[in-house]
Amino acid sequence: MSEKKTTHFGYKEVDKDSKADMVADVFHSVAARYDLMNDLMSAGIHRIWKRFTIELSGVRKGNSVLDIAGGTGDLAAKFSRIVGTEGRVVLADINQSMLEVGRDKLLDTGYQGNIEFVQADAQFLPFPDDSFDCITIAFGLRNVTEKETALRSMLRVLKPGGRLLVLEFSKPENEVLSKAYDAYSFRLLPLMGKLVANDAESYQYLAESIRMHPDQDTLKEMMEDAGFNRVEYHNMTGGIVALHRGVKA
Ligand SMILES: C[S@@+](CC[C@H](N)C(=O)[O-])C[C@H]1O[C@@H](n2cnc3c(N)ncnc32)[C@H](O)[C@@H]1O
């Protein structure tokens, strides 16, 4: 059987080879206004989702942490304070524009100088085996072309006993919430994107890519298939977002 050569970019079926460039265009376009839009779109709730991710990470002073698809550095900034000067945080992202916005923001807020900024693709992480105590990927996995390849790459660079945390949009738990959420994401999001960032298209992609992303149980299975142990997930905001955690044996 020949391997499938296409994948999804939102609702569009595109060549696997072109998805990364299309995703790159989205994030080059939104980088400057990314933080503002994040706060507006989620009414600030993304901060709570991220705080819970930090709590469940179990990261301690002196640990090594990789935040992949780290973008503008919200998680990296928090990890930087926890691991301290004996620890190490790597903020990795495929997109130069997002990394630049992240680096400027963290420099302005005076982080501890323990963060490295690396341009890297989640599918092909440029780190030795068994490097990190914890890896996070927040709102990044759904943009990756081959999610299975990325999960295996993350498993490889985790230390035995290390944790992967995947924070991502997921499937609302009930019909009423699901309908309201659909109306919000397909009507209001692109409109907000147009008004605030003059970019309706990127926010249309956001809404579509969320619907195409695997639901809670499917992602749990994908993590198990990639080799993670003790995989579990926690729904937040009625399942609009889920946090999956798996451990490397
Ligand atoms: C929605 S942003 C999330 C940023 C940040 N983690 C947060 O939660 O605010 C998604 C990020 O994933 C990055 N990204 C997309 N595909 C990627 C890939 N294959 N490897 C690494 N990063 C990727 C994008 O450049 C973008 O910065």
Q: What is the secondary structure topology, with strand pairs?
A:
Layout lengths: L5 E4 L2 E4 H15 L3 H9 L3 H12 L6 E5 L5 H10 L4 E6 L2 H13 L6 E5 L12 E7 L8 H11 E12 L5 H23 L2 H13 L3 H11 L2 E8 L4 E7 L2
Parallel strand pairs: 3-4, 3-6, 4-5, 6-7
Antiparallel strand pairs: 1-2, 7-9, 8-9
Helix pairs in contact: 6-9, 7-8
The site of S-adenosylmethionine (SAM) has 20 residues, from helix 1.
Pfam family, one: Ubie_methyltran
EC number: 2.1.1.163, 2.1.1.201
Function: Methyltransferase required for the conversion of demethylmenaquinol (DMKH2) to menaquinol (MKH2) and the conversion of 2-polyprenyl-6-methoxy-1,4-benzoquinol (DDMQH2) to 2-polyprenyl-3-methyl-6-methoxy-1,4-benzoquinol (DMQH2).
Write down how many β-strands occur, each being a DSSP E stretch of 2 or more residues.
9
Spatial order of strands in the largest sheet: 5-4-3-6-7-9-8
The residue ranges in which pLDDT falls below 50 over 5 or more consecutive positions are none
- The gyration radius over C-alpha positions equals 17 Å
By CATH's scheme, which homologous superfamily applies? Answer: Vaccinia Virus protein VP39
- Stated plainly, the CATH topology is called Rossmann fold
CATH architecture label: 3-Layer(aba) Sandwich
Instruction: Report the sheet with the most strands, covering strand number, pairing sense and barrel closure.
Output: 7 strands, mixed
- Count of folded domains: 1
State the name of the first-level CATH class: Alpha Beta
Strand content: 15-25%
The helix content is 40-55%
Q: What is the H-and-E element order? A: EEHHHEHEHEEHEHHHEE
InterPro entries: SAM-dependent_MTases_sf, UbiE/COQ5_MeTrFase, UbiE/COQ5_MeTrFase_CS
Function: Methyltransferase required for the conversion of demethylmenaquinol (DMKH2) to menaquinol (MKH2) and the conversion of 2-polyprenyl-6-methoxy-1,4-benzoquinol (DDMQH2) to 2-polyprenyl-3-methyl-6-methoxy-1,4-benzoquinol (DMQH2).
EC number: 2.1.1.163, 2.1.1.201
Binding site for S-adenosyl-L-methionine: 72, 93, 121-122
